[in-house]
Amino acid sequence: MELTRPIFPEHGNYQCPVPSCSASGFAKLKNYNEHWQRVHVRTSRLYRCLVCPSTTYKLSKARNHTRSFGHRHCCMAV
Ligand SMILES: [Zn+2]
Ligand SMILES: [Zn+2]
Fold first, then answer.
1. Cα of 18 to ligand 1 centre, how many Å?
2. Beta bridge partners of 76
3. Using an 8 Å Cβ cutoff, are 13 and 24 in contact?
4. Which domain of life is it from (predicted)?
């Protein structure tokens, strides 16, 4: 799956956007991706925007959403 990488906050301390997850304090995107893979990559293929509450089950819609905001938004598979 090829998705554009989200713009990651410069100062780190990134918080997991999954509502049921309270994980935070990721200093780097790499750290967060590891958390994502470990904790959230399971069954569903819901794509959730990292910036706004937008969600979709379709990769094409997720890509369009990301693109339509000039890559300031990024939908990632939940
Ligand atoms: Zn999480
Ligand atoms: Zn968005």
1. 6
2. 48
3. yes
4. Eukaryota
- So where are the chain's domains? 10-42, 43-77
Q: How far apart are CA 78 and CA 48, in angstroms?
A: 6
Tokens of 78: 């939940």
- What is the reported pTM? 0.43
Q: What local confidence, expressed as pLDDT, does residue 6 receive? A: 56
Per-residue pLDDT, 49: 92
CA of 77 to the centre of ligand 1 (A): 12
Going from the Cα of 38 to the center of ligand 2, the distance in angstroms, rounded, reads: 23
CA distance 27 to 25: 6
